[in-house]
């Protein structure tokens, strides 16, 4: 049996846990906050639990990989340290699923870690652990059919990314096939903290919002609560990673990271 065409429009679908949580935030007039944390790094499970209590709508867990091409220096350093500390993909997934959070979790990793065990096994491991979604930034839509079929079958929401340079026609196909949310990449380049919000962040959010009802969250280049509020003048929410991961790398406790997340939550609530 051939895998379905990953780029085929699928406007009608039943929202999974991740998408439903983000839609609830939007329906209540708010803006979604999805922190990113590196799995396997230090006291990461207590940090995930503390961040969930600090007002996150969902949490993105990075499964460490030796060549994280989308990630800038901070998250690369975190992945390297986690690997040195012995982080293994399935152990990270299992520990994430066992965390006491009460909100949806999504994993972010690279396709090599999916390809080696096979898409069916990897999707099944996520589902068994209770992971709601998956983000594979180096897997293009045109090659994603086998993974998407396996993820759909396991009930795992595949979050797709759209870059600022994505043409309109391709943006529509990405939006039609994304689940959970549409990840609008705020700027060209790798993840990392920036002194100011790139103009492209609001522009890609505006373009995406014009063509889909799926929650549109902007990530990459959103570094401060003020930047989060600014981009959420258009977007439905933000994904923030490097600012929190840096705190972990600098020895911050779970409570300190949670306090940092709470400042983003408060700013979004006041600015929304």
UniProtKB/TrEMBL annotation:
Annotated EC: 4.2.1.20
Class of enzymatic activity (EC top level): lyase
Domain of life: Bacteria
GO MF term set: tryptophan synthase activity
Catalytic activity: (1S,2R)-1-C-(indol-3-yl)glycerol 3-phosphate + L-serine = D-glyceraldehyde 3-phosphate + L-tryptophan + H2O
Keywords: Amino-acid biosynthesis, Aromatic amino acid biosynthesis, Lyase, Tryptophan biosynthesis
One matching Pfam family: Trp_syntA
Transmembrane segments: none
Entry keyword Isomerase: no
Record-linked PROSITE patterns: TRP_SYNTHASE_ALPHA
GO cellular component: cytosol
Keyword presence, Transcription: no
SUPFAM superfamilies per record: Ribulose-phoshate binding barrel
Pathways per UniProt: Amino-acid biosynthesis; L-tryptophan biosynthesis; L-tryptophan from chorismate: step 5/5
Role played: The alpha subunit is responsible for the aldol cleavage of indoleglycerol phosphate to indole and glyceraldehyde 3-phosphate.
Family named by the database record: Belongs to the TrpA family.
HAMAP family: Trp_synth_alpha (MF_00131)
Name of the featured protein: Tryptophan synthase alpha chain
Organism in which the protein naturally occurs: Candidatus Neomicrothrix parvicella RN1
């Amino acid at each position: 049996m051939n895998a379905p065409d990953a780029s085929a429009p699928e406007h009608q679908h039943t929202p999974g846990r991740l998408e439903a949580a983000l839609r609830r935030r939007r329906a209540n007039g708010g803006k979604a906050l999805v922190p990113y944390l590196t799995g396997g790094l230090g006291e990461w499970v207590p940090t995930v639990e503390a961040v969930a209590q600090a007002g996150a709508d969902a949490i993105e867990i990075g499964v460490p990989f030796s060549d994280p091409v989308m990630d800038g220096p901070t998250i690369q350093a975190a992945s390297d340290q986690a690997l040195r500390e012995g982080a293994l993909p399935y152990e990270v997934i299992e520990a994430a699923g066992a965390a006491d959070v009460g909100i949806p979790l999504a994993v972010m990793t690279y396709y090599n870690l999916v390809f080696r065990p096979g898409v069916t096994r990897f999707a099944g491991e996520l589902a068994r652990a209770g992971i709601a979604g998956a983000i594979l930034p180096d897997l293009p839509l045109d090659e994603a059919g086998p993974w998407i079929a396996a993820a759909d079958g396991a009930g795992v929401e595949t979050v797709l990314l759209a870059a600022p340079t994505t043409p309109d026609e391709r943006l529509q196909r990405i939006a039609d096939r994304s689940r959970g949310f549409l990840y609008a990449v705020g700027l060209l380049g790798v993840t990392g903290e920036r002194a100011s919000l790139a103009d492209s962040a609001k522009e890609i959010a505006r373009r995406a919002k014009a063509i889909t009802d799926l929650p549109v969250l902007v990530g990459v280049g959103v570094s401060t609560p003020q930047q989060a509020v600014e981009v959420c003048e258009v977007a439905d929410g933000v994904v923030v990673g490097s600012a929190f991961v840096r705190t972990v790398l600098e020895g911050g406790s779970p409570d300190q990271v949670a306090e940092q997340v709470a400042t983003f939550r408060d700013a979004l609530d006041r600015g929304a």
